[in-house]
Amino acid sequence: MADSDDKPGDKAGDDTLKKAGSFLSKLGKAAKEAGEKVAENVKENAPKAVAAMNKAGNVIAAGVKENAPKALDAMNKAGDAIVDKTKQVTGLGRGSVKLELDQTKAAPGGTISGRLVLDLKEPVEAKRLVVALTAHQRMVNVRKDSGHRTVGTESANVYTFEVELGGATTYKSETLSFELTIPPDALDLKASPPTTPLGDVVRSVAAAVSPTAGPIQWQVVGRMEIPWGRNLTDDVDIVVTR
User: What pTM was computed for the model?
Assistant: First the structure.
């Protein structure tokens, strides 16, 4: 009996291959259709997405354009506040006060005349404006502590006389004249000994009788008193003699 050309096993294999090929063909067709749909959706929606992005960008740009000046103004105000506070605390950038004296030597009972020049970079709010005649004397203190002596010096106030040139107000650059009178007993003034426990102080010697201390020092002081800030001051040494 002769063998058939198509064996059962070969036929089954052919059927499997045909089914696999048909499946792959359908899968490829589905993938192609899906890809075409995706491409079509992208093509259809891309302009909308771009338009939406442009719109969002325009909104952001408009917001920045509208608020940038406000933010810049706020930053400028904060910067100005810092600068003002720095000027108030340090006195830098406010300007200066300067004394101009017609003479720097006077006798007891005589006068010292001059001017206080306000050279201000901007208006300054101050409590008052004063010129003062002051005198200080160096004191020598010898103290005993636990059997050891220590020697020190300090500047003691002898005389102060103030003339107020202006009260609480806003000051601008100007020049104000003044005159100060030297006390008639200027050469007889002495500093009072410092107030200290008697057991701790061996002696307190004034400059008039001590070779280790200087004489009475006289000054004219100009001062603009600024609340919660550094005062603007200037001082000039003068000589009081007969």
Answer: 0.57
